[in-house]
Amino acid sequence: MTYHRPSFRHPDLPTNELGHTRQYYEGALSTLCAGCGHDSVSAAIVQACFELAIEPHHVAKLSGIGCSSKTPAYFLNQAHGFNSVHGRMPSVATGANAANRQMAYIGISGDGDSASIGFGQFSHVVRRNLNMLYLVENNGCYGLTKGQDSATADVGSAGKRGIATAFEPIDLCAQALQLGATFVARSFSGDKQQLVPLLKAAITHKGFAFIDVISPCVTFNNTTTSTKSYDHMREHVRQADVVDFVPAEKEITVDYAPGTTKELTLHDGSVIHLTKAQSDLDTSDPHAALNAIHDHKVRGEVLTGLLYLDTELHDFHRVINTMPTPLRDLQEKDLCPGGDVLQGINSGLR
User: Fold this and answer.
1) What pLDDT does residue 152 have?
2) What's the confidence (pLDDT) of residue 106?
3) For residue 234, which phi and psi values (nearest 5 degrees)?
4) What averages of pLDDT result for each successive group of 10 residues across the chain (350 residues)?
5) Looking at the 3D structure of the chain, how many domains does it have?
6) Nearest Cα to Cα of residue 72 among 49, 42, 51
7) pTM passes above 0.70
8) SS3 string of 268-311?
9) I want to staple 37 with a disulfide (CB 3.0 to 4.6 A). Which of 80, 216, 269, 345 is the partner?
10) Is 11 a member of any domain?
11) Which domain holds residue 225?
């Protein structure tokens, strides 16, 4: 089977400052499950880049392994891309960023890719304040390997196996704050009005911008006791073989004011409580952000919105004093300045 996105569009579609329509920022047709929250995240990234009027070839999109790491194929078809091994996307992003600081870097990861096998790499890319958008599509399970609990699954949350999670979850927003991230936010894949502005701010932020997006898995984390997604009872299935059936579901969206809590009923009748950060939250204070995350967690709520922003310019390039010219553009005389320059460097180290 082949998948092709229709090329026809209305001739009078709106354009951005560069004269591009939104179609210019799209990618391949998604092969994820119908109703997957990841597709909503991809659509939000497309909208954000369209509104920012970014040339796709000025963007590098990177990922690891997992359902989330497939999504870079579904936006910015003309951007540069690299799909790395499981949990190692930060290393590739660091190398690419060091070689060319003029690109915009978008790293897409999952809760397994970042909070489990890649947790160490996630920690170091945060503390180095690499200039990039690091987005986690968080569904609380390993959707690519039949829905085992991930490290972000809440205590008491039961996945497809029906066994409640017994271990404390890793809150990636809290970890990012403690490790020195200069932009931290959380959102919900179905809240486009909140997510698009956050993406635009994160892409233009100079430093490490982290967004944790709760993105429901329609296939495996589908029980009424799940705190991050919804289940759906398989209907009208006659088992002739061991085959999974994922019925198409209508996308869940939500719109609610900052400082309020929204009780959202999912497909299966389960409920998730979303709370947008209040306008009086001091986003310049990481301790206030950590306290707010904890307070809402105790009440069984998910705090979304911009949680912390550091406007000081002390990103990775400023700290290690990299040169603004991409390495690909350096000439031989720049790379091999001669023995006198080497002698001067050695003398300065004695």
Assistant:
1) 87
2) 97
3) -70, 130
4) 65 88 91 88 95 94 91 93 92 93 94 90 93 93 77 77 80 93 90 89 92 86 63 27 43 73 68 67 86 84 84 80 84 82 86
5) 1
6) 42
7) yes
8) CCCEEEEEECCCCCCCCCHHHHHHHHHHHHHCCCEEEEEEEECC
9) 216
10) no
11) 22-234+242-348
Per-residue pLDDT, 282: 82
Whether 177 is in a domain gets the answer: yes
Place of tokens 């310019």: 313
Per-residue CA distances from 130 to 25, 71, 161, 166 (Å) = 25, 22, 38, 34
Number of Cβ within a 10 Å radius of residue 268 = 17
Structure tokens at 118: 């890649």
The DSSP output letter for 329 is: G
What is the C-alpha separation between 156 and 178, in angstroms, rounded? Answer: 26
Q: What is the Cβ-side half-sphere exposure of residue 71, based on CA atoms within 13 angstroms?
A: 26
CA separation for the pair 174, 45 (Å, rounded): 24
What are the two backbone dihedrals, phi and then psi, of residue 312, each rounded to the nearest 5 degrees?
-70, 140
Amino acid, single-letter form, for residue 171 = D
E runs forming strands in the chain: 59-63, 80-83, 104-110, 132-138, 141-142, 148-149, 183-188, 208-214, 261-265, 271-276, 302-309
Domain presence at residue 195? yes
Within-domain flag for 13: no
